[in-house]
Specification:
Blueprint: E1 2-12, E2 31-32, E3 36-52, E4 55-72, H1 77-84, E5 87-88, E6 96-97, E7 106-117, E8 121-136, E9 153-159, E10 169-170, H2 177-187
Antiparallel strand pairs: 1-2, 1-7, 3-4, 4-9, 5-6, 7-8, 8-9, 8-10
């Protein structure tokens, strides 16, 4: 059974040879996107059915893409700039400007989860999407009233298959968080490191 998610890492595609033929992408400098609250992926598939002699004779299902909805406690402006292609002020790097010409880059996304296996054995598993592009989600701003409502920062990624054919990679079960974190760091590392 799955519970808990941690260490949301993202890295942009490398500037040089980002998508080698038949291989996973190469990445630039990775960054943490904030304290992870929730990830929901929703893969979609193209399907076709063929009938003959009054029966289903062919059924083809092929991966299309996967939407990944992410919530973090707070998305820092520097991270938002990197994933959305928005611009930070040149003077002090404080204000974040979203523009009509923003072009979010492709990158890799990874994190790890906690699991409880049969026999109450705790384990950890890494999850990796090799090719994903972010888009900003609408925000809701509420005034303080008789109760307090806490809202997370929301990010939508659209992941597709990379040149290796992979769209998602799951690690084996690890017995320690350190092993799972190491796996995530290995997947989302800058080229040449």
């Amino acid at each position: 059974m799955k519970y808990g998610a941690k260490m949301l890492q993202w890295a942009p595609f490398a500037e040089s040879d980002p998508e080698p033929a038949g291989a996973l992408p190469k990445y630039g400098t990775p960054m943490n996107l904030g304290e992870l609250n929730k990830v929901t992926d929703s893969p979609t598939f193209n399907e076709a059915k063929g009938y003959g002699d009054n029966a289903l004779t062919v059924h083809v299902t092929e991966f299309k893409e996967v939407g990944i909805d992410v919530e973090v406690n707070e998305l820092p402006n520097a991270a938002a700039s990197a994933i959305f292609g928005a611009k930070l002020d040149a003077e002090d790097g404080q204000d974040l400007h979203f523009g009509a010409e923003d072009n979010p880059p492709y990158g890799g996304l990874a994190f790890y989860i906690s699991k409880m296996l049969k026999g109450n054995i705790k384990a950890y598993q890494g999850i990796f999407y090799p090719k994903a592009k972010a888009s900003a989600q609408g925000e809701e701003y509420s005034t303080k009233g008789e109760s307090i409502t806490l809202a997370n920062s929301k990010i939508h990624f659209l992941a597709t298959a990379c040149n290796s054919g992979d769209w998602k990679v799951l690690s084996k079960d690890f017995s320690t968080e350190e092993e799972a974190a190491s796996w995530v760091n290995e997947k989302i590392k800058a080229s040449g490191t």
